[in-house]
Amino acid sequence: MEFGSFLVSLGTSAVIFVVLMLLFTWLSRKSGNVSIYYPNRIIKGLEPWEGTSLTRNPFAWMREAFTSSEQDIVNVSGVDTAVHFVFLSTVLGIFACSGLLLLPTLLPIAATDHNIKTRVKNGTDTTSKGTFSQLDNLSMANITKKSPRLWAFLGAVYWVSLVTYFFLWKAYKHVSTLRAQALMSADVKPEQFAILVRDMPSPPDGQTQKEFIDSYFREIYPETFYRSLVMTENSKVNKIWEKLEGYKKKLARAEAISAATNNRPTNKTGMCGLVGKKVDSIEYYTELINESVAKLETEQKAVLAEKQQTAAVVFFTTRVAAASAAQSLHCQMVDKWTVTEAPEPRQLIWQNLNIKLFSRILRQYVIYFVVALTILFYMVPIAFVSAITTLKNLQKIIPFIKPVVDIAFIRTILESFLPQIALIVFLAMLPKLLLFLSKSEGIPSQSHVIRAASGKYFYFSVFNVFLGVTLAGTLFNTVKDIAKNPKLDMVINLLATSLPKSATFFLTYVALKFFIGYGLELSRIIPLIIFHLKKKYLCKTEAEVKEAWYPGDLSYQTRVPGDMLILTITFCYSVIAPLILVFGITYFSLGWLVLRNQALKVYVPSYESYGRMWPHIHQRILAALFLFQVLMFGYLGAKTFFYTALVIPLIITSLIFGYVCRQKFYGAFEHTALEVACRELKQSPDLDEIFRAYIPHSLSTHKAEEHEFKGAMSRYQDFNAISAA
Amino acid sequence: MEFGSFLVSLGTSAVIFVVLMLLFTWLSRKSGNVSIYYPNRIIKGLEPWEGTSLTRNPFAWMREAFTSSEQDIVNVSGVDTAVHFVFLSTVLGIFACSGLLLLPTLLPIAATDHNIKTRVKNGTDTTSKGTFSQLDNLSMANITKKSPRLWAFLGAVYWVSLVTYFFLWKAYKHVSTLRAQALMSADVKPEQFAILVRDMPSPPDGQTQKEFIDSYFREIYPETFYRSLVMTENSKVNKIWEKLEGYKKKLARAEAISAATNNRPTNKTGMCGLVGKKVDSIEYYTELINESVAKLETEQKAVLAEKQQTAAVVFFTTRVAAASAAQSLHCQMVDKWTVTEAPEPRQLIWQNLNIKLFSRILRQYVIYFVVALTILFYMVPIAFVSAITTLKNLQKIIPFIKPVVDIAFIRTILESFLPQIALIVFLAMLPKLLLFLSKSEGIPSQSHVIRAASGKYFYFSVFNVFLGVTLAGTLFNTVKDIAKNPKLDMVINLLATSLPKSATFFLTYVALKFFIGYGLELSRIIPLIIFHLKKKYLCKTEAEVKEAWYPGDLSYQTRVPGDMLILTITFCYSVIAPLILVFGITYFSLGWLVLRNQALKVYVPSYESYGRMWPHIHQRILAALFLFQVLMFGYLGAKTFFYTALVIPLIITSLIFGYVCRQKFYGAFEHTALEVACRELKQSPDLDEIFRAYIPHSLSTHKAEEHEFKGAMSRYQDFNAISAA
Q1: Which of A600, B466, B620, B680 has the fewest Cβ atoms within 10 angstroms?
Q2: Digit-coded pLDDT (tens) for A557-615
Q3: Distance from CA of B588 to the nearest CA of A (A)
Q4: How many angstroms separate the CA atoms of B554 and B560, rounded?
Q5: How does DSSP assign A7-50, residue by residue?
């Protein structure tokens, strides 16, 4: 790619971003769009606009983002979101500190050398003839072999690494404090009083599952056991309940139409309301609702009596008792009565709870295998895409596009964007599949599923996008050599030598991602259009309108690995082509700014895991650093630099640093520390309410005052009531 | 080695064993020896002889051993000893079941082939020319390459593996039950009410270490916390106390002499009582004792006030509370306030408790490194020993021994025993060093140190004795080839082809070990002689006599790895030279029998770890099986057997089996399961007595009624007294 097309790509992106930002300023001040640009504030019951927002200043939202504190984020969007900002600001800190030293030193050192010129002059550069650009002169590719200038690059590797250790350590400590503060909050949270028990053995004769659980836990915790909630097989009752809810919605819709038009609406009873007998909608749905309610009650009874499973949520009277119980081995046979902290009621995945320990382990390995296959399988099309998306190749393959391509403007645009767009579209297909696979592992909570999917997605993107694209050019030529004599050092060498050639590709990729991606994110053009279309043509009731603008959560399963990929790319090129640091800094500062706005005003988190994402983020940042160090080892070696071995202590330090962090911090993310759980509550908890929070909608009765939920639940013990008081 | 010398070696050993056994029968019936042959019964306060023992039947002890039940062993010698018998009988079961099928099938199959004859005839066997014997005809060495008879040997590998899985699974289950029963016993054991807390941070200003601990734990466990005992730096007070005890002994001795001879004994005050002023011993020691008591009291106060360390034993009012606390994370920073189950008072290693978490980890790795070096360093002398201990080599090196060696009888004896004796003497030097190294890791309990030392010793013996001796012959020739092109398959191949040559060596080694080793063990000749000498010339008081006959414990740190080595050898040769199974069976059945006698009557266990040795034993048996499978894979490959790959599923099965066992059982050995800890006690525990059990002798006051132990201990809380009642 030439320098010109790179600048055009950059310029176009920047213009699009500015346009989208102005659009956002204009649109967000229209009162009809308030539920698109401020949904989180509306749901929280806050005033959507606060004075300043209404000015015509297009940077007002930036000031708001800057002035908001971490505590604001925790209050409005929860600890998980605050942790994501710690991630963004930590990475920003790493890149800013690295750039501060690397940009003013390495760029002049690279620019004043003459490796590329010499090689081109001598005709020794056989692989990249003619494809170099002005940008390459600013990278390590321009340093001659064995040059003492390489000392500066070695020093830069040390500087980047040390800066990373420092920021990561500070961040882990900070997140740990954030988590502790949230867990020791004086508010009553149901999940802090409960544990999840799985792998229960079958009860002895004459006892129900419920009696068995109760007697088991009452014997161990005579004073702190409150009661238990046996998990049930709810698929059928859920279906009935969903139907009932659907009928209720349709009834409300029919009533709304009736009120608006003064005509009683009708519908047909057959397939999709298109065929069959015509009936009065209000009467028809009222009847259906009554039928369903009766059906639901019968099924509820059946579920509670007959469909008890081998898992339960067990409730305790204090937080310490629950936190301690969740960490203790209960049964001499470790694969029975396994316990974990209870997830929040809203993220409990009921259908996974009945899966036995060894079955879960087996599923996990099978799915790891499937994912590994997926990663390898996708390698082929990605390599194909990046191989054909140089225009020259494209012209060879599809000769009839030549006239179009010859137009200078189109040629430039295509050259700039085509490979990147292909890549982005390609990656958009995957997350759903990974979420599904992760859920199949038998994980009991939504947040855990998302962490698992995020990990898989990270490996996928690093392997396929980063390594795939980097190697694609040179791979096909050298794959035969490797196949003949596969050795690790050869792979590293290959990777290291092909890195600089892809630097410009990734500069463009990062720029595209932050300008276009964050522009769309901020302006919310697509949700806005969809909302207005729906509102105009489909929605009749309040509930339907709300459903149309409901913003969803921050979807960490793609957001984190996406940022991680940029992070990995920036790390790996930070010393080879230091200019990428500028792009990395822009990406993460724009990201911080836009997401701050979105977190405060738009997205509604769908769960709270108290920062359990952090250890994963930490480990992957460290993995990216590790990859960077190994590549630099290979690349300095390829430059036949004599002191390349000095990188090895750094690689070992990374491993030790990771180990120490894990030892010092990880335990507190896996479990709740008792010193945190023992803090006093604002008021003595309403245990019955805590218990009821775990009853799914489909099993709670519809009469407001009656929460009897018998059958699968243990009875309240007077004894416990006294000891809890 | 020739067949004749093998038989002579075997016969001599057997004769020695019979002689030693008869000696035992004769000596153990003399009443003067009762404290050597029945010390454990004496200490337990039982009658040393029970009727039948007094018969002249030399097999009476065997009948007693057979008729004793596992419960007897648990009662007399504890769970750890019972677990060791499970180990012995499990291995016996494995070998017996394997032998039942392998001996009648494989021996004829091997004997009727003719590989060795053919190769000798053809002169193709270049490495073992002339050294084969009749025994080799019964081994796999006699099977021709690619022979379909190899199917039988492949089948044998499967049979041995399946039998091992079956017995190991049964044994793990059984030991787990044994442990659970011991832990749920209704007797009060101090360690079940306590946890060990380490890595305490420094207390806030104005608080002592003790107040800090108490307030920390009282906040978390307001109802079940009893009190705490801060660890102190006792080296000085221990020295004073030991001196005091020494003076007391000397005073008692002086008084005994005075009573016996009616002369007041005298001694000199200088070095070793040899120089200096002559004084009256009784007066002199009385004065010294008074001085020391005063010194001790001053030092005790100083220790409790000033030498508090960052570790403590924390006591709870119930077993469940303690068991649960020992498993829970207490501090948000995982490297602070770390908790483990408290070891028994008698096995707590005070001087290790102050070592911090990361320092412990660092020490561990350093020591692993040192041990690895030791293993490699010892390789050289061991290889040297086994290289020169063939007589031919010996004659070459020391030619002047030729006339001695030429005498047929001496030649045979030397040929049979020399290499084995060299080996046994060599191995006797190591255990102390390994115990010292393991203790330096910072491990808090004696039993854990012994487990760690036992593990190191196991690796040492397998690597050095087994692999070292096996390879010694061929290694020197092929080491250059390996150094040129090191590949794992080559190492396996080398090992596999050199195995059969060493089979006879190991047959003799095992035989020597069980006949001589167990003969000496049973007859206790050496302790008997030492005891009688001491009693006659040194001991004056009751206490001194008791010290002279006190038998010590079973010393698992050498016993377990010793048995493990035999097990590994037997496993590895079980299919190659099935005859070794006979020797293995004899070793473990004789071992079971002799040790049963010793456990019931002789050894006094010095600690009780409730079978925590078992997971280590289990894992090492499995490792031996794994090694066996890998070697068979290599050896079948060396025989160019086409279906060798069929061993691979077996190797994978071993890994899965190990994983499943670990998942299912190990947790209950690492921690106490709460369902076990919650069993009712015979009587409500005397918490004060439990607390006092942890106060070391040197810190407890000498006035019988006064157990004030203030300073480092927290005060008793009325509140707790009520809740515990």
Answers
A1: B680
A2: 888 888 898 898 889 888 888 888 988 898 899 899 989 988 888 888 888 999 999 99
A3: 29
A4: 10
A5: HHHHHHHHHHHHHHHHHHHHHTTSGGGHHHHSHHHHHTT--S--
**Contact criterion met (CB below 8 Å) for B253 and B339:** no
Distance CA A89, CA A91 (A): 5
A329 to B358: CB separation less than 8 angstroms, yes or no: no
Is A133 near chain B, with CB under 8 Å? no
The Cα B125–Cα B119 span in angstroms is 5
- Given B329, B337, B670, which is nearest A327 (Cβ)? B329
Asked whether the beta carbons of residue B334 and residue A223 sit closer than 8 angstroms, the reply is: no
Q: How far apart are the C-alpha atoms of A224 and A247, rounded to whole Å?
A: 43
Using an 8 Å CB-CB cutoff, list chain B residues near A357: 663
Chain B residue whose CA is closest to A173: B333
ipTM summary value: 0.81
3-state DSSP call for residue B59? coil
Cα–Cα distance between A83 and A560 in angstroms, integer? 11
Q: Report the alpha-carbon distance of residue A130 to residue A401 in Å, rounded.
A: 23
Nearest CA in chain B to A181: B332
Asked if A333 is an interface residue toward chain B (Cβ–Cβ < 8 A), one would say: yes
Q: Tens of pLDDT along A492-513?
A: 666 666 666 666 777 777 777 7
Q: In angstroms, rounded to a whole number, what is the distance separating the alpha carbons of residues B159 and B162?
A: 5
Residues of chain B found within 8 Å of residue A327, distances taken between Cβ atoms: 327-329
Q: Which two tokens mark B485? A: 């092109």
Nearest to B335 among A332, A358, A664 (CB): A664
- Using alpha carbons, select from A154, A145, A157 the residue that is nearest to residue A119: A145
- The three-class DSSP label of residue B686 is coil
B258: which 2 tokens?
């005075």
* B663 to A357: CB separation less than 8 angstroms, yes or no: yes
Inter-helix orientation angle B488-512/B408-427, to 10°: 110
The Cα of B675 is separated from the nearest Cα of chain A by a number of Å equal to: 6
As given in the structure block, the two tokens for residue B716 are: 């008793």
Contact partners, residue B216, CB within 8 Å, separation at least 6: A675, B337
Q: What are the tens digits of pLDDT across the range B120-155?
A: 666 554 444 444 456 677 778 788 888 888 899 999
Residue A211 makes CB contacts below 8 A (sequence gap 6+) with A203, A714
Q: Are A715 and A723 in contact (CB under 8 A)?
A: no
Residues in A closer than 8 angstroms to B319, CB to CB, are: none
- Considering only the C-alpha atoms of chain A, give the largest distance between any 2 of them, rounded to a whole number of Å: 92
B672 contact residues in A (CB cutoff 8 A): 329
Is the alpha carbon torsion for B396, B397, B398, B399 positive or negative? positive
